[in-house]
Amino acid sequence: MPRPSETLKLGLVTDLGRIDDGTFNQYAYDGLVQAASEHGLEYEVIETESRNDYERNLQSLIERGCTLIVTIGSTLGPAAERLATRYTSVHFVIVDYEPLPDSRNVTGLVFAEDEAGFLAGALAGLMTDEDVVGFVGGMDIPPVLRFQKGFENGVAHTNKRAKALSIYTDSFTDTAAGEEAARELIGQGADVIFAAAGASGSAAIRAAAQAGAWVIGVDQDEWVTTFQNGAVPGAERLITSAVKRVDHAVYTAIDQAVHGHLRAGVQRFDLSNDGVGLAPYHAADAAVPSEVKGKILEVRDGL
Question: Looking at the chain, which terminus has fewer C-beta neighbours within 10 angstroms, N or C?
């Protein structure tokens, strides 16, 4: 009987965007490539250009012989689950999605965005001078809502005087909407802005940082991506990012499949298993008081 690794061919379908777009499309790809390299597996990748293409893209990977397909984003989940009922020999791994309880060949990778958001909010509450902070959301899907709720709770935990404002762009790709949201929040007095809105959010924090606000990135370390390791103006205003280790989660799922341990259902990644956390302070390190850093460590240990 062949080992699992001898029958695995990997596939990846991104959500809208590309594998080098600095969002978790890229980090899921990184996790897949790492696993494929370590285990000597073939893989195919399709970058989604329209939501109408979700099912077509998944079907294409099945026809190319992929037996484990990673999909990115909760909006892809329903299409993957529909195909999972028809192609029971293919295992689907869906980032940011909780599959139906009776799904036998679907694994959802979910994250404790509320924990990462809480840490971001706690830091924002300590860093604001105006007692007004802002949140930019993309679409009102569960992961974004968890980020927002955690952020608001974190702000309240460290600064009961602070007011948390929020604006949704209704898009993860509309950079102009992200920039406008940042301007609107700053106009309402926000001096710390946290964005969880994909490329829209990256545009929001870039615009806010260049306008002089403190900003907090999301999903990955946006010092590396959005601010290109400090090369982009405003990088010194990025105090941290609320990181989701999508690369770690995707790698873990594939590694489990290779060893025959991948199970259907939900896998949760949180602070306890290095699934979420805060990125380094980078160029803002000297501007973050030592007592603030200490408080954030205390808050983290208490979650």
Answer: N
Domain at 113-243+276-302: CATH code = 3.40.50.2300
SS3 content of the chain, % helix, strand, coil (to 5): 50, 20, 30
The model's pLDDT over 237-292, given as tens digits with 9 standing for 90+, comes to 999 999 999 999 999 999 999 999 999 999 999 999 999 999 999 999 999 999 99
pTM over 0.85: yes
Tell me, what amino acid is at 211?
A
> Would you tell me which CATH number, out of the four given (3.40.50.1000, 3.40.50.2300, 3.60.15.10, 3.30.420.10), belongs to the domain 4-112+246-273?
3.40.50.2300
Structure tokens at 166: 């929020």
Q: For residues 121-135, b (16+ Cβ closer than 10 Å) or e, as one string?
A: bbbbbbbbeeebbbb
CB 43 within 8 A of CB 32: yes
Residue 4 has what pLDDT?
A: 59
φ, ψ at 269 (rounded to 5°): -115, 125
**First-to-last CA distance in the chain?**
45
CATH 3.40.50.2300 domain locations along the chain: 4-112+246-273, 113-243+276-302
The beta strands (E) that lie in the chain are given as 10-16, 43-48, 68-72, 91-95, 106-111, 132-137, 163-168, 192-196, 214-219, 238-244, 265-269, 276-278
